[in-house]
Design brief:
6 helices, globular, 2 domains, alpha+beta, 3-stranded mixed beta sheet, two-stranded antiparallel ribbon, Aspartate Aminotransferase, domain 2
């Protein structure tokens, strides 16, 4: 995969046409921001590496939560980051802080705030997840299902053996 080509986001401007540049999508008037949900960026298998768009596009927001990588989905602690080169960075940081303060519940408790440094060092056992992934995908394929082996995260996509997926789900229920 040619990552330079994949992440040449600035080239999107050259591809804007009349049907994409309209009053409801004024690409040439307002900047386009990219939101990158990187909640699973540490859950990669088979030597894969993650490439964040923040390295390639200065109007990117990185959204991260520790709940996924530490298998603690109820813990609402994470962050939004932006590259130092982002235009109007300070104004956007202030807007994010105000939005967080207004919602009230978006602030982690004091204990969680102090533990972020330690959380950053913690990680789940990727080898264990890889073995579980392989066992699940293998079992599904042995049963005749078409399953995609994930390169990251812990979700397995399985194709329905019936053309009518809803009917298949109802049969399973």
């Amino acid at each position: 995969m040619d990552l330079a080509r994949l992440f040449r986001i600035a080239g999107l401007a050259a591809r804007v046409r009349a049907h994409t540049n309209s009053p409801s999508r004024p690409f040439s008037v307002r900047p386009v921001y990219l939101l990158s949900d990187e909640s699973y960026n540490r859950i990669l298998y088979d030597g894969r590496t993650h490439h964040s768009p923040l390295r390639f596009y200065d109007r990117s927001f990185l959204i991260y939560t520790y709940g996924k990588t530490l298998l603690a989905p109820g813990q609402r602690i994470g962050y939004i980051a932006m590259p130092p080169s982002m235009p109007e960075r300070q104004a956007l940081r202030t807007a994010l802080f105000v939005a967080q303060a207004v919602t009230g519940y978006a602030f982690p408790n004091a204990l969680m705030q102090y533990s972020v440094g330690e959380l950053e060092k913690a990680s789940i056992d990727i080898a264990v997840l890889a073995r579980r992934r392989d066992r699940l995908v293998g079992a599904l394929q042995e049963m005749g299902y078409e399953a995609v082996t994930p390169e990251g995260t812990f979700y397995v996509l399985v194709r329905s053996p019936l053309a009518d997926e809803r009917a298949f789900v109802e049969r399973l229920a």
